[in-house]
Every structure is written in C-alpha cells, then in structure tokens.
Design goal:
Blueprint lengths: L2 E9 L14 E2 L2 E2 H9 L5 E6 L3 H5 L4 E3 L9 H13 L5 E8 L9 H7 L8 E5 L2 E10 L3 H10 L5 H7 L3 E4 L16 H12 L15 H10 L7 E5 L12 E2 L9 E2 L3 E4 L4 H4 L2 E8 L13 E5 L11 E4 L4 E5 L2 E5 L10 E2 L10 E3 L7 H9 L4 E5 L2 E8 L3 E2 L11 E2 L1 H10 L4 E9 L3 H12 L4 E5 L10 H8 L1 E6 L2 E2 L3 E7 L2 E6 L3 H19 L10 E5 L11 E10 L5 E5 L8 H6 L2 E5 L11 E6 L8
Parallel strand pairs: 1-4, 1-6, 4-5, 7-9, 14-15, 22-25, 22-26, 23-24, 26-30, 28-32, 31-33
Antiparallel strand pairs: 2-3, 6-8, 7-8, 10-21, 11-20, 12-19, 13-15, 13-16, 14-18, 17-18, 27-29, 29-30, 31-35, 32-33, 32-34, 34-35
C-alpha cells in the first residue's frame, strides 16, 4: 500500500499581491486553495496545509494546518521540512509527501501517480515540469529525505529547492497542458494572473458538464465532511426516561455484575446436579424462592427448591428443571419432586455477570442512545447521565416561486415548499431543536439579512436552492461576504453541488433545490455533519448486496450514481432491487416508492440483470417512519 501525504505550501508571509495570502483570494466563488484541494485531495491519502499566517482561516478547509519548523528560514524548503516532519509522525506505511504551492489551482488529475511512477518505487524525489520549465515546488519527496533536508538547511543559507533536489538525485516528469487549458502549474503571483485565472474559468462550460478533475468523488466529499473542524456541543444532565435519541457525553462502565447473582431462567425446581443420579431424579422439596426474595439457607443434600423466573439460586444449587418437565409427589415424609435424569448441569440458570461484568464497557461518548441502550443503563441503576445538548438547526427555503401550503393560493409559476417539510421531517429523529427560518426571496440583500440574523441563534442552517450559477442564486456570494464558503462540486447523480459555509460559529449547508437531490444530499453529506456537530460518532451506513432487478447495458463512468429503488422478493427468496421507472430529481413520487438507493460506483460501466449491487436502505441512512 502506497500512502502519500499531500502537503500544500501556503507560506503565509504574504509579501506578494498586496500582502494577501494568495491561496485565500476569491476565484470563481471560492478561494484559490479550494480549486487546488478539489484536484489534489482525490489523489492522496491525506492532506496537510503548511501555513504560517491566519491558521484559523486555513483550518476552515477541514485539514491539519502546520507551521514551519524553521520560522527564521523562509521559503518552500522550510515548508517541505515541516511537511516531512509531520508525515514522519504518522503511523506506517507513509511513503512520502507531494508538495504543491497553494496558488497553483489547475494541477493535473494524474499529478501524484505520474510523480510516483518516476520515483523508482518511492526511493527518489521527482519534480514536475511543463512547457514553462521545471517546477521544483511541485514534487514528490520520499520520507527518508527528512534527515538530509534538516542537515542541508542547518548547514547552508541556500534556500533553492532545485539545488537540494539535484543533490538528492531528483528526476523530473513532464506534463503538457490540455487543449484550451492554462499551463498545469500556472500560479498566481500578480493581479493580472488572478484576472487570467478568473477569465479562464468563466469561459469554461457549465459546471454540470465539466470534466471529472473539477469535481470531488463521493469518498473525497465524505472525507471532507468528516474532517471539517467543528466545536463540541455543551454537556447537560438528562434523566434516563428522557435520554432516548440523545448523544452520550460520557463513558459508561458497569459498576456491578448484571445480573448480580445466579438466577433461575424459568419457573421450576432448583437442585444440586451432583445429587441427580444418586437420588434417581427424586428430590425433597424444602424451600420456595420467588423473585426478589432470595432463600436464606443452602439446600440440603438431595433437596430441591421451588423457584420462579428471576429468583436468586439457593446456595449449592446449579441447575433448574422446568416445572412442566417435573412430577411432584406427596410422600409420607413430605412433598417431593421428580426431575428429568437427562438434564445437563447448569440448565436454565443465568450466571452472575452473564449480561455484564463489573468494569465492562457499556457505552462510549458519542453513542446515540437507543431503547436497548436505555434498558442497559437502567439495568446498572443509572437514573441520569451526561449527554450533549441538542444542537440548534434552522431550515431556510429560498426562491420567489415558493409558497407554504395553507398560507396562500397557488399562483401561476409558484410551487409549494415541499423541501421545508421534507427537511424538518428528516430532522425530527436527530438530537436537534429545529427552527423554521421561513422562505427568503431571490434577493441578495434579503438573503444576507436572513442568514446574518439567524446565524447568531443557530448551530447549523440548512438551505435548499439558490446554490447554482444562475443570476438569482446568491448563496455563495452572501456566505463569502458574511464568513467563509466552500463549494463542493461533486461527481455524483443526483446532486452535483453542495455548499459549505460558516458564519461565526454557525455552519451553513446549502442543499440542491430539487427534492430528490435535496434528500439524497442531506442523507449522504448533511447527515454526517449534523451528527458530528451534535457530538455523535459517525459510522458508515450498512450496505446490503441485493440482486439487480434491472439492467443497464452501458452507463457513463466517472461519477457515483444513487438510484431510487424498492426491494422485492425474487422467486428464489432473494432480495431484488427494483428501480423506479423515472429518474427525474424533482419526482417526490420516486422517493415515496423507494425503500432506499442502489449505489453504482464511478467505475461501473454496465449492470446485468441479476448481478449483485449495493443497496443503501433509507433506514440505514437514518430515515424513520
């Protein structure tokens, strides 16, 4: 396994371009660095940003931020040293780092693979080259260069990257610009460079038809969501009876055995199994033990006790015979009971600590409490517990065409706001207090006022619509003005675009406007962010492998597709995924007819009838009836 760390050299001394961090400059509705990350992230195992100025702004991109380890030695080599030092702290098998300057937004989609292919199995450093010359700051650096680079920087004032790489036997790989594209290592150093990059992006075709290097794949988008830095919610004490669905904020261990003593699993007769053969199955009845009333004395030899389910076993007894398998007899010397001779030792006895032993881990911080978890907490005597406070989530709809049912007659061109009720219903099962932020029309000033006012009272704001490139879509520009914004152009269907923003400490998630895309984007990407913000541990949803009840002779590769489907039982009893007949992203009927989503990965070029396909049930994605 080849583990490569992508190290973005953001510098931070801001000596060029009017004293600004070039990676943070706006370019086509997102920072320059955002364009670079969307191309570099799918190519590496992990990303780190080397920045010495404004670390908080760089941390908002959701990756570790490291400063130079030689702050008095400016230049790319200090950043390379910081990146190699960081990589050396990670568990094996890290092979090395690939460095790219933060002001280089158009790197090739095959940059890392080509550099590695020329590295002699990861042993040699490799520089990138293009028609404009060598680019030594765009390079692969094996991890074992760390000590040599440390010595080089300690012994010389030479800050030239090329000098060190030449001494280390570096190779180079040439990359050509695609037709109509800028140099793959075009970097931004002047206002004119920034203007050229903007005009280049503006001239490109619509986002929906861009080639895949511009868009994140599904795993990269998930990783971006899970790496996003989020504050921890407050902790509160919650009575056990109101703890269902809450997120635990403490580790819970069993303070005692459960059950605390050996008990009977059935109504019957308890006896000492060693006496069974000698007694011929006949025992004298000398005690009666009900649940909650333990016996006070050990059983005598060849004696049994009438016992009931849950009652503590008498001392010496180790087996219980079910009452329906026994025969009671009235003898001159007292009542007796005959038990089956074939009964194994220990039958129908629950051992102390069989469910939980003292010290066993019961629950961890971040667990969402289910009914069975509540029962387990009750079994150890917990009357209350420490949980995370519910997060505050506001739902805002955008669009002049939207109306709420019952508030006005449907006018020409208008639509009822289905997304509001879709999202608030989905949120009902979350540890969240949900607020209706209403409908905001397609006016930039109105949206800016609505978001700025709501952000102070909410932990997360969910919007739907208004996130595309249209003249009436203002979400990106408003978020850029109020705080931070990141555009995730996704190689998925349906969905394609997700907006992540931050206003103060409030997260903003911009979902698509079409109901199907809104729901699927919510389940795939908003759901894990919501759960993380609520303090919950996020685990991947379980995928079932089912038979395809459909065939796709050919499909466009390079994007992840999620098809609405219902599960039916095939003739042989296996589960079969039956696709909804129509695939439009505005068809709420398709969501109603579906049990979940058939997931087709980026490299699946065809699906044959009956072939196994992964199925994500709505229940596995947290949708409750």
């Amino acid at each position: 396994m080849t583990v490569i760390i992508g190290c973005v050299l953001a510098g931070g001394l801001a000596r060029r371009l009017c004293g600004a961090d070039k990676g943070l400059l706006p370019l086509d509705h997102r920072p320059v660095l955002g364009h670079l990350l969307s191309r570099l992230e799918p190519q590496v195992t992990r990303l780190v940003i080397n920045a010495n100025g404004e670390p908080g702004r760089f941390a908002a991109f959701g990756h570790d931020v490291i400063a130079d380890t030689l702050p008095d030695h400016p230049g790319p080599l200090a950043g390379v040293l910081a990146g190699l030092t960081y990589a050396a702290t990670l568990p094996p098998p890290v092979s090395g780092i690939v460095t790219v300057p933060a002001d280089t937004p158009f790197i090739p989609a095959n940059l890392v693979s080509q550099l590695l292919a020329a590295s002699d199995g990861g042993r040699l450093p490799v520089m990138a080259e293009s028609a404009t010359g060598l680019h030594p700051a765009v390079a692969f650096w094996p991890l074992d260069l760390l000590s040599g680079l440390s010595a080089f920087l300690a012994e010389t004032d030479n800050r030239r990257v090329r000098a060190f790489l030449a001494a280390a036997g570096a190779r180079s790989v040439s990359f050509a610009a695609a037709p109509g594209e800028l140099d793959p290592f075009f970097n931004i150093n002047t206002p004119e460079d920034l203007a050229l990059a903007r005009s280049h992006l503006a001239a490109q075709i619509n986002d929906c038809l861009r080639p895949d290097p511009f868009r994140l794949n599904h795993e990269a988008a998930e990783a971006r969501i899970l790496a996003r830095a989020l504050p921890e919610p407050a902790r509160v004490t919650v009575p056990l009876g109101k703890a269902h669905g809450r997120v635990l904020a403490e580790v819970v261990t069993a303070p005692r055995n459960v059950p605390p003593a050996d008990t009977a699993a059935v109504d019957g007769y308890a006896f000492r199994h060693a006496d069974l053969d000698a007694a011929g199955g006949l025992f004298a009845l000398e005690a009666r033990i009900a649940a909650g009333h333990p016996g006070s004395a050990p059983l005598s030899p060849w004696a049994a006790a009438r016992i009931f389910t849950g009652a503590v076993m008498p001392d010496g007894a180790d087996t219980v015979a079910m009452q329906e398998d026994c025969e009671t007899l009235a003898e001159p010397d007292g009542r007796k009971v005959r038990v089956p001779l074939s009964l194994p030792r220990g039958s129908n006895r629950r051992r102390a600590g069989e469910d939980l032993k003292a010290g066993d881990l019961l629950l961890q911080a971040g667990d969402r409490l289910r009914p069975q978890d509540i029962a387990a907490l009750a079994s150890i005597g917990r009357a209350d517990l420490t949980a995370f406070a519910p997060i505050r989530v506001g739902v805002l709809s955008t669009g002049d065409e939207l109306l709420r049912p019952g508030m006005a007659a449907l006018r020409p061109g208008a639509l009822y706001d289905a997304n509001h009720f879709l999202l608030t219903s989905l949120l009902a099962s979350y540890p969240a207090d949900v607020s209706d932020l209403g409908i905001c029309g397609d006016r930039r000033e109105a949206l800016q006022i609505a978001l700025s006012e709501a952000a102070g009272a909410q932990d997360i704001i969910l919007t739907s619509g208004g996130a595309s490139h249209g003249e009436e879509d203002h979400l990106v520009s408003v978020l850029a003005a109020l705080g931070q914004v990141e555009i995730l152009d996704l190689a998925i269907k349906p969905g394609r675009r997700l907006i992540l923003g931050r206003i103060g400490s409030c997260e903003v998630i911009g979902l698509p406007g079409n109901p199907v895309a809104a729901m699927i984007s919510f389940l795939l990407y908003a759901r894990p962010l919501l759960l993380r913000r609520a303090g919950a541990t996020v685990t991947p949803p379980h995928r079932l492998m089912v038979a395809a009840g459909f065939s796709l002779p050919s499909r466009k590769t390079g994007r992840r597709e999620f098809h609405r489907a219902r599960l039916i039982t095939g003739p042989d009893g296996t589960l079969v995924a039956d696709l909804y007949a129509r695939s439009g992203s505005g068809l709420i009927s398709s969501l109603r007819a579906a049990d979940g989503l058939v997931e087709l990965a980026e490299d699946v070029g065809a699906v044959q009838l009956g072939a196994p396909v992964p199925f994500l049930s709505f229940a596995a994605l947290g949708v409750q009836a």
